[in-house]
Design a protein that fits this description.
The protein has 18 helices and 20 strands. By secondary structure, the chain is α+β, with helices and mostly antiparallel strands. A hairpin with a 5-residue loop joins strand 5 and strand 6.
Amino acid sequence: MMSQRTKTLAVFCFFIWALMAGRLAWLQAFKGGHYRNLAQRQHQLRIGILPERGQIVDRQGRPLALSIDDRRSYPYGTVGGQLLGFTGRDGRGLEGLELCYDRELSGEAGWATRQRDARGRVRPSLEYASKKARSGNSVQLTIDAEYQAIADEELKKAGDKFKAAWGTVIITDPSTGEILGMASYPEFDPNRPDDFGRQAVTFGAVAAQFEPGSTFKAVTIALALESRVIDTADIFDGEQGSYAVGGHRIGEAEGHKYGPITVSKALAFSSNICLAKIGLALGKDKLFQGARAFGFGSRTGIECPGEAAGLMDKPDGWPVIKHANISFGQGLSVSALQLVMAYGAIANGGYLLRPRLIKGLAPAGQTVDGSCRPDILRRVISDQTSAQMIGMLELCVSEGTGKVARIEGWRVAGKTGTAQKKEQGKKGYASDKYVASFIGFVPAETPRLLVAVIIDEPQGRFFGGEVAAPVCRNVMQRIISLPKGLRQDLLAARSQ
């Protein structure tokens, strides 16, 4: 017979065993998953795999931005710096195309599971699941790196020479709307973004607004020709350099005094008075609606952040002097890209195109096949008006204010512009601040290369024919002289 003490001990042991068994059963049934996960975390390590950021390449596939050892690099330095933008320390885009196409360039992160021993040492293992990172897409531009470098170099020379506040050079193919180069001054190196101020980062080619001055005269005349208000041979009196309008007097640049001259000569010699008369004859509603049709007062839709819309008030609020002033490019604000596309419409037979900066997206290491089709927004003038305008713009270069833009052996068309800047916080215009501009295209008979040059607040000389036209000539001449690129296309176009 068991003693009472033995029975008590047996019951106690059974109770302890039952308690432990119950605890084990409870842990197995209700906490098993938790402890299995805990054990896995102790012996497994999940690590993230960052994707390689996609490249930004030019139309030939040459890399303008790429990642090397997890660091973003821009092989061409300051070439196209503001356009490309830059990334932050976390690899995300902060400015320019790096920001605009950050999602496409970033790719998709992956992960991998590693085995960890009792001492915390990590070893690779094929037993555990993983997900590969997907590299970002390449963004292929319509930009040509050689053209871009030429534009940046020539713009910097002029900007430094004239101590300009800012400037831009835009190169396009007017037949397709493709942007072949977009330079901005002051220069900016995205490899060293912290070394430059905010002004250098700002992409003036699309963000800056300014009065177009005499470059707008071509638009006024094109609209008047299209409306059959005038003909190229019509005579307008230059009033010997002084014309009263709405209680104000309009004069000519440099004190010029013109008498009766043709519409063609009025554009070639850039007569404010004759253009005011043409604009008044056209009427403010047609001038306004026509300018809007040419794209002024609205964004072009380029695939680039920060684009300005420009400013053009509705005509019901125009006094007669404002109507006259707008006719020769004063009293409205435009962007350089708006002017480029408007002149592109004059050059290509009358079609306003949407500018194309992005050729397409492609998987890492690949490029986009084929060429861009023109994205036609609308017809703004007829073939006949386009041909008439091209002839007059040729006269501007051969005999008028744009003589400096002539290139031997080539027919060049273009127009100068010199616009006074408004006084900040005051009425009227500053006496010593100007925007010098020139827009030209070649070959005039079948335009394939259009170059616009804008120089803001040049010091010393300030007329578009002196400051901007030489830059345009140099850019066009250097591109024409390249052994590859548009040269053969241009030569073929001349023979058509």
